[in-house]
Structure prediction request, 407 residues.
Amino acid sequence: MNHQGRVPRRYSLLFAIVVCHYVPSVYSGKVADSLMEKIKGQGKSDAVLELPSVMGSVLSNPILAFLSGDAKTSMLMNLMQQFTSASQAPFMSAISGLGFGDKVQPFWVSNKMSIKNANLPLVQALSSLQGPFTLREPQEVKLIRAVRTEILNVTKRQQKNEWGVMKIEAPAVWDSTTRGENVIVAGIDTGVLKDHEALKDNYYEGGWHDAMSGKDEPYDDDGHGTHTMGTIAGQNGIGVAPGAKWIACKGLGPRGGNDVTLSECAQFVLKFNPRPKVVCNSWGGGQGQTFFNDEIAAWQAAGIIPVFAVGNEGSGCTTAGSPGDQPNLISVGATDKNDKIARFSSRGYAKGSNPKRFKPEVSAPGVNIRSAFNEGPNSYASLQGTSMAGNFHQQWKFTIRSFISRN
Prediction:
C-alpha cells in the first residue's frame, strides 16, 4: 500500500554529499510575545518551533531531475526528512533532555516541531539555543463555513443530476469517456461519513487519517467534509466524478483547526500511495499568510494539485483569505445558476501582494448545492459557499480531464 519507488544506487553518493553540506546559518531565535504571555498566565501552552524552510534546497537538488513517478516522490520525501532532521536535531536534543521527548511531534513536510504543554523552563532553554527559529503558538485556522445551510430529509434525494453537475456538463464526459475511474482524490476537512449511501462505495480502503482525535475509521462531527466529498465523488447525481475513489484526513473540527493538524494531514496526503491527483481544502486563516506554503510546494512537486476555496468574505476587493490568496495554488470562487459571481464570494487582488495577484483564478457552482450530509446514511443538505465551488472546479478540471489526457 505505502510502497515507494526505489532510488537508483548511482545517486546515493550525490544524495549523501548534498545532505552533509546542508548546514543552517547561525542566528538568534525569537519567542512570540503571545506565547510568553500565555505561559506566564497559565503555566503551559502548546507551542510550535518553526525553523527555516528547506524546500528551496530540496527542490533544487539535481537528483530529482533524473527521477520520475514513485522514485521521484520517494527521493523528494527522503530529502525533506534528511534536511529537516538535521535542522531540528539540536532542538530535539534539548527538548528530550528536559523531559518533553514524548510531547514533541517533528514534521518534515515543513520544517517545524509541535510541542504539547510547553512550560517556561522549556521555552527559556530553547530560546538560548543558536539558530534562526520562531517559537510561537499554533496558527489557528477556520473552516470556510457555508453562508447558508438547509437540512433536507431523505425524500429530497433525487436520482437526477444536480444543477451544478449539469452546469459544468459533466454527464457529457461520463457518456463519452469516464466517470472518474482509476482516479483518487483527497480532502482535508472535518472528515467524511463513511457509510453514507452516496459515498460508501467510493472509499479507498485505508485512505483515512484523523489528526484531531486519532480515530481509526472515517467519521464527520460537523457535516462540512461529507458535503464537500459528496460534491466530488458522490453517487445519486450529487458528485462530479462518481467513479473516483476518495481518501480523507480530518484536520478540522466544527471550530476549525491549526497548522499542526493541517501539516499532519499534508504529510498523510503526500505519503499516500497511490497518490491522489488533487487535494481539496476549504479552510483558512487571515490574509497574506505563508504558513502553509511548504506543504503546498511539496504536493506540487509530487504531482498533487492543491485547490483552495477563496473564502466567503465578499463582495469587496482584497477579501481573499489565506492560503487561497497565495500564488502557488488555484483558488476558486462561487457562481450561481446564471453564472453570476455570488455576492459572498471573496475576490480582488491578494492583500499585500506585489505585484498584485488577482484572486480567484476560476469560479464554479457554489450556490444552493445539494450534497451528502453527516446526519445519517441517507441525509442530504443544501449549502452555499466557495467550499462547494472548489470541489466542483477541482474535480472537473483535474480529475476527469487529466484522466482523459493520460489515456
Observations:
- The first helix runs from residue 12 to 20.
- The chain has two domains: 9-138, 142-406.
